[in-house]
Amino acid sequence: MSLRVAILISGGGSNMLALVRSMTGDHPARPVLVASNDPGAAGLARAAELGVPTAAVDHRPFRGDRAAFEAALSEKLDAARPDILCLAGFMRILTPGFVAGWEGRMLNIHPSLLPLYPGLDTHARALAAGDTEAGCTVHEVTAALDDGPLLGQARVPVVPDDTPADLAARVLTMEHRLYPAVLRRFASGDRSPVHLS
């Protein structure tokens, strides 16, 4: 029996698309919901085109009350009954209370080789530090931002004259390979890290 996967997005959902398209055939999981904090997120229409149910909970009416936003989001998630929750470009920081309810079942992808460069502007920070390689990480979500057990990393070289946009594009290509590989392994019950280069 396939595990049920919900995916949270905030924008175009390119990582969501990579995940959804990977969950076919003998995959141990299947997508049951794509939800967003932005009703206008382009990824919602893309998910619907692939036949995945969608939902939106606009975060703006809940400004200053993250718990109320998360309660509304949880109603949508509870209705879909997911076993695994994947964050794929979901740009809201979740409270420890919400995260605790998904302990060991929530994954996130981050565009750096964690523990390097948690938070934003990862590519510019890697270039400013003179790093010779960059990449992305899939990890279990904990209450600490961009922390938690590492489930996979993919590495790319930093090349001369790279801009943050150049590096971001190269890393994103690897994100689309890494996240599906990690989800397949994770849904099979294997939490050993995936390494790609």
Automatic annotation (TrEMBL):
GO terms, biological process = 'de novo' IMP biosynthetic process
User: What are this entry's molecular-function GO terms?
Assistant: phosphoribosylglycinamide formyltransferase activity
Functional pathway: Purine metabolism; IMP biosynthesis via de novo pathway; N(2)-formyl-N(1)-(5-phospho-D-ribosyl)glycinamide from N(1)-(5-phospho-D-ribosyl)glycinamide (10-formyl THF route): step 1/1
For (6R)-10-formyltetrahydrofolate, which residues are the binding ones?
Answer: 66, 91-94, 108
Q: What is its EC number?
A: 2.1.2.2
Broad class of enzyme this protein falls into: transferase
Name the active site residues: 110 (proton donor)
Listed binding positions for N(1)-(5-phospho-beta-D-ribosyl)glycinamide are 13-15
Q: Name one GO cellular component term.
A: cytosol
What organism is listed for this UniProt entry? Mesobaculum littorinae
Function recorded in the entry: Catalyzes the transfer of a formyl group from 10-formyltetrahydrofolate to 5-phospho-ribosyl-glycinamide (GAR), producing 5-phospho-ribosyl-N-formylglycinamide (FGAR) and tetrahydrofolate.
Provide the catalytic activity annotation: N(1)-(5-phospho-beta-D-ribosyl)glycinamide + (6R)-10-formyltetrahydrofolate = N(2)-formyl-N(1)-(5-phospho-beta-D-ribosyl)glycinamide + (6S)-5,6,7,8-tetrahydrofolate + H(+)
Q: Which family does it belong to?
A: Belongs to the GART family.
Q: Which NCBIfam families match?
A: PurN
> What is this protein identified as?
Phosphoribosylglycinamide formyltransferase
**Site (Raises pKa of active site His) location in chain:** 146
Keywords for this entry? Purine biosynthesis, Transferase
Residue ranges of domain Formyl transferase N-terminal in the record: 4-183
